[in-house]
Amino acid sequence: MSLEHLNSWHADWSKTRVLVFGLGVSGFAAADTLVELGAEVRVLTDKGDAEHLDILDVLGVKHSVGQSLEDNLAELKEFSPELFIVSPGIRPDNALVVAAANSGIPVLTEVDLAWRIRDKWGSSSQWICITGTNGKSTTTRMVAAALRTMGAVATNREGANMDAGLVAALAADRDAGLAALEVDEMHVPRSEEHTSELQSRQYLVC
């Protein structure tokens, strides 16, 4: 499946089968947003907050929690998603992620999804993504503080994207034209695979 047309909140996401892997705050925000876009969403997760699971039930999103790898692989095959979204904190070499990629399913990080739909919150914001091994959260807070001299800035409260994710950070400050966002270094190579279709993000490596 080509992702070229799925590069905006205003694109036609309807009926696109999307599997979201992981259900922290970020995975839930991704699933909720995709439902709002009209996609057909399925969630697989090792664990999930009871409130999030209840809301997914209300939204009509089928979810499976704590399944074995074999059961997850069977559900992946049965659902046959057109797009696979990986939540922060899940490694790119995770067996289910690798199986999806080897099956020819486009695999995006939650970072990529947030980038594609960032125009939901008004004009497309300009991003600075901070990555590296140490010092990311501190650097993110410093960059956000510097950018605020130029206007509103979307960022996570503590800088880190591992729990809350980027979709939630952007939704929290809808009017921001700038964003300072921490990105875990293990997701940067995969997210970079898709930037040829989109305007480049700016990365600051710590």
Brief description of this entry?
The protein has 206 residues and is α/β, with parallel strands linked by helices. The protein has helices at 25-36, 50-59, 69-79, 95-102, 110-116, 136-147, 165-172, 188-192, and strands spanning 17-21, 40-45, 62-65, 83-86, 107-109, 126-131, 153-154, 178-182, 202-205. Residues 195-199 have low confidence and may be disordered.
Structural overview:
This protein has 206 residues and is an alpha/beta fold. The protein is built from 8 helices and 9 strands. The strands form 2 sheets. Strands 3-2-1-4-5 form a 5-stranded parallel β-sheet, sandwiched between helices. Strand 7 (153-154), helix 7 and strand 8 form a beta-alpha-beta unit. The protein is globular. It starts with 16 loop residues before the first strand and ends with a strand. The relative contact order is 0.17.
> Helix count?
8
- Biggest beta-sheet profile: 5 strands, parallel
Distance between the termini: 35 Å
Anisotropy-based shape:
globular
Bin the strand percentage. Answer: 15-25%
Helix content: 25-40%
Q: What order do the SSEs take from the amino end to the carboxyl end, as H and E? A: EHEHEHEHEHEHEHEHE
Measured on Cα atoms, how large is the radius of gyration?
Answer: 16 Å
Low-confidence runs of at least 5 consecutive residues? 195-199
Strand arrangement, major sheet: 3-2-1-4-5
